[in-house]
Amino acid sequence: MRSILLLAVVGAVLAAAPGAAFGVGGGQSAQERATEYVRLGAQLKSLFAEKKYEEAAETCRKMADLVPQSPEPHYNLACALVHLGKKDDALAAKADVNAKTNAGESALRIAKARRFQNIVAILEKAGAKD
């Protein structure tokens, strides 16, 4: 069910701005990239459950490359980096997200809703606004 919902969200992003959502070229169709994004999302869930944070961070980077405007991979990358003790890297990742996608607000709301105070502090330090 979550994969279907995620694919629908990716589809909506494609409908709004197909070229911007998945970039130009790359050898993959928009559908192939959307399918890969969903596959990586499922893999990411397992990596976090298994506490494989380095692999999770790399998966987040791949997801962000596929759909740069989605706040989810950027937020999850910051979480993975915090778990790895790389708070400065997490801060840099969030600052970069704010500059590229203006997604900091969404990530900040997610962190506050989940009561992840350490992530909230990093996001706020990066300039995310509620």
CATH class: Mainly Alpha
Largest sheet: none
* Amount of helix: over 70%
Shape: globular
Q: What oligomeric state do the depicted chains represent?
A: single chain
Average pLDDT taken over every residue: 76
Structural class: mainly alpha
Listing every helix as H and every strand as E from the N terminus to the C terminus, the arrangement reads: HHHHHHHH
Topology overview:
Elements: H1 2-16, H2 18-22, H3 30-49, H4 53-66, H5 71-83, H6 87-101, H7 104-113, H8 117-125
Helix pairs in contact: 1-3, 3-4, 4-5, 5-6, 5-7, 7-8
Keywords:
single chain, 130 residues, mainly alpha, Serine Threonine Protein Phosphatase 5, Tetratricopeptide repeat, 8 helices, 0% strand, disordered N terminus
Write a concise synopsis of the structure shown.
This protein is mostly helical and 130 residues long.
What does this structure look like?
This protein is mainly alpha-helical. It has one domain: Serine Threonine Protein Phosphatase 5, Tetratricopeptide repeat (Alpha Horseshoe). Helix content is 78%, strand content 0%. The chain is built from eight helices and no strands. Helix 4 (53-66) packs antiparallel against helix 5 (71-83) and helix 7 packs antiparallel against helix 8. The longest helix has 20 residues, at 30-49. The model is unreliable at 1-25 (pLDDT under 50).
